[in-house]
Amino acid sequence: MNDSECIFCKIAAGEIPATKILDENQVIAFMDIGPIIKGHVLVIPRDHYPDIISVPPDVLSALIVSARRVAAAQVKALNADGVNIIQNNGRSAGQLVPHFHIHVIPRFNDDGYHFNWNPGKYSSPEEMEKTAASIRSAL
Question: What is the pTM of this model?
């Protein structure tokens, strides 16, 4: 199940070269060509799924286990002080390639990159409960 126009499907099929670090039955991990920090890796399913909602649970499990393995390898091999694991869904969330992928980014105390955000707030506890109720009802 692949999308003939998807760059990540082409990487998975070997049609586009990539520097792979992991190549397994359901999962491929390769170096990001535009790394936030050197050592930035993308973990993708071999098959095409546009977002987290479409990924079958067994494949999603394999992906997160692989992301964990990559993170541990980055800490060991690169002496990383930490790791960011980021997954975006939809263009509004920053997903540029519509093929599910997990960013595994090694972090160093002095790398100068920050993912911090300015926290917002609810106008009242009732507003937070109303929002939570909407989400619960969709579960």
Answer: 0.91
